[in-house]
Design goal:
The complex is a heterodimer of chains A (239) and B (276).
Chain A lengths: L16 H12 L3 E5 L3 E7 L15 E5 L2 E7 L1 H22 L5 H14 L11 E8 L5 E6 L5 E3 L2 E4 L3 H11 L7 H13 L9 E7 L5 E2 L2 H18 L1
Antiparallel strand pairs in A: 1-2, 1-8, 2-9, 3-4, 4-5, 5-6, 6-7, 9-10
Helix pairs in contact in A: 2-3, 4-5, 5-6
Chain B lengths: L1 H6 L40 H9 L18 E6 L2 E6 L3 E3 L2 E4 L5 E5 L2 E4 L4 H22 L5 H13 L9 E8 L2 E8 L4 E3 L2 E4 L3 H11 L6 H18 L6 E8 L2 E9 H12 L1
Antiparallel strand pairs in B: 1-2, 1-10, 2-11, 3-4, 5-6, 6-7, 7-8, 8-9, 11-12
The chains are: A alpha+beta (239), B alpha+beta (276).
Chain lengths: 239, 276
């Protein structure tokens, strides 16, 4: 147990305990869900219940990194702010040097390499966030990537991070259909997945979508309520 | 850091705190495309341009020694409906001495990217090989070939670090990428231009004359080959510092092909006989 002080040290059984603890911190964060459809990519997050006097709009868990990429995270908000800032600068730097927008994979790789560097350096702790990064490459292919505090990243068709991620992921596995042509189906899947774990329905969901060749759009509360009502009606029909 | 505080060292060591740029966490960076880590070290306290001037520009040189930097070339490239034509001569000269008639002035970076060289042979060869290295690393990291605009930008960013230090390089980066045929002119000042037709070197005015009078976007492939070859030939005929052979490449959607390598003497007789 004394191997968790300086994180550059391995434990005898090959663990980096600080990285594991960072992953625990992620599990305490509010849920985020990402779904990759054919022509649209969707990110949904569980909105934390804010205090009465707190302004609702200052808590933003979905951030755009560039015109074609945006991300959501689960874990320590302050750490995420740093990562988002660095990623935004890197996106612009890529545009300047290469004259093309960064691909989703490139920016994911950049974020992961930052996270990895902080797991292999003295005096620093790993970033306590996992992120879901979605977007379209400039040739039109949609992507969804997930990064975690250890600095690894994987591509997913649909995934969830944060509190109750396991439950949501199982729901997604059961309900994800390979060729979801319609944008509405993709959005509904993300909302249904979030509704599994979010208390009190549509009020606590924040959703962002991006269609190919369009910029990111945060759905307004009324639009989310429409989808939620449609989902409830479908559920009623089935039972 | 805690240990520094305990030893009392942090009082007299100016720690920058967590200046992100210089922290060791951020030193290793695979994402700066060679732009910030200069590949060639410049000696401290020496202004390379001033150092070179007496050796190169003055009549007697320094202690009777004069360095004749290799200059003199004609290269050209133009876009047309079937891709990009690239044609170069092959003479390397040092002052009035012809070093070789068989110098390769086109560097084949990858099957879809070519770079031409004019100016100082050493500068061109060195920097374009560094560019080729960066293009290979890009392909390994990103699993796809680098675009022509990115490659030309890399080269321009690399040489702009040495601006004013006496580099002499005029190059054209030609290729075919996802956006179609690409042609960029890059020179030692860091100037980078996208265009449909360029010619560089001491014989470029002669080549422009021939190219401009015969160029149309809808040239057929044999017509384009003929135009490119003629333009270089006429430049070698009049410019003392161009000659040797005309090396011609054609950049197509499936990659470049080397069209021909003909001695300008043979070309002279061919064109002369045509006129009869």
């Amino acid at each position: 147990m004394s191997y968790d002080r300086a994180i550059t040290v391995f434990s005898p059984d090959g663990h980096l305990f600080q990285v594991d603890y960072a992953q625990e911190a992620v599990k305490k964060g509010s849920t985020a869900v990402g779904v990759r459809g054919k022509n649209v990519v969707v990110l949904g997050v569980e909105k934390k219940i804010v205090a009465k006097l707190q302004e609702d709009r200052t808590v933003r868990k979905i951030c755009s990194l560039d015109d074609n990429v945006f991300m959501a995270f689960a874990g320590l908000t302050a750490d995420a702010r740093i990562i988002v800032n660095r990623a935004r600068v890197e996106c612009q730097s890529h545009r300047l040097t290469v004259e093309d927008p960064a691909t989703v994979e490139y920016i994911t790789r950049y974020i992961s390499s930052i996270k990895q560097r902080y797991t292999q350096s003295n005096g620093r702790r790993p970033f306590g966030i996992s992120s879901l990064i979605v977007g379209f490459d400039f040739d039109g292919t949609p992507h969804l990537y997930q990064t975690d505090p250890s600095g690894t990243y994987h591509a997913w068709k649909a995934n969830a991070i944060g509190r109750s991620a396991k439950t949501v992921r199982e729901f997604l596995e059961k309900n994800y259909k390979e060729d979801m042509e319609s944008d509405t189906d993709t959005i509904k899947l993300a909302i249904r997945a979030l509704l599994e774990v979010v208390q009190s329905g549509g009020k606590n969901i924040e959703l962002a979508i991006m269609k190919r060749d369009e910029s990111m759009k945060m759905l307004a509360q009324e639009e989310i309520e429409e989808y939620v009502t449609a989902i409830e009606t479908e559920k009623q029909k089935k039972t | 850091m805690a240990l520094l505080d305990v030893c009392g060292i942090s009082d007299w060591v100016k720690e920058d705190g967590f200046n992100a740029e210089r922290a060791s966490v951020d030193k290793v960076n695979h994402f700066n495309f060679a732009a910030q880590t200069p590949e060639l070290a410049v000696p401290v306290g020496v202004d390379p341009a001033e150092f070179l001037r007496p050796l190169v520009d003055s009549e007697e040189g320094v202690d009777g020694v004069k360095i004749n930097l290799e200059h003199g070339t004609t290269t050209l490239a133009f876009k047309f409906q079937h891709g990009v034509m690239v044609a170069v001569d092959s003479r390397a000269s040092a002052g009035s001495y012809v070093s070789t008639q068989m110098f390769k002035k086109v560097i084949e970076i990858n099957p879809f990217l070519l770079g031409t060289m004019s100016g100082s042979a050493a500068d061109c060869v060195y920097w374009e090989r560094v560019l080729a290295k960066e293009c290979r690393i890009y392909k390994l990291r990103n699993k796809e070939r680098i675009s022509v605009s990115a490659a030309s930008k890399l080269l321009a960013n690399m040489v702009v670090n040495y601006r004013g230090m006496g580099l002499s390089m005029g190059t054209m980066i030609c290729g075919w990428d996802k956006k179609g045929p690409g042609l960029y002119y890059v020179d030692d000042n860091g100037l980078r231009l996208c265009g449909n037709m360029f010619s560089t070197g001491s014989g470029n005015t002669y080549a422009y004359g021939v190219m401009d009078s015969g160029y149309r976007y809808d040239l057929s492939v044999p017509e384009a080959y003929d135009l490119a070859q003629r333009a270089i030939f006429h430049a070698t005929h009049r410019d003392a510092y161009s000659g040797g052979t005309v090396n011609m490449y054609h950049m197509r959607e499936t990659g470049w092909i080397k069209v021909s390598q003909e001695d300008v003497g043979d070309l002279y007789h061919r064109f002369f006989n045509e006129k009869k």
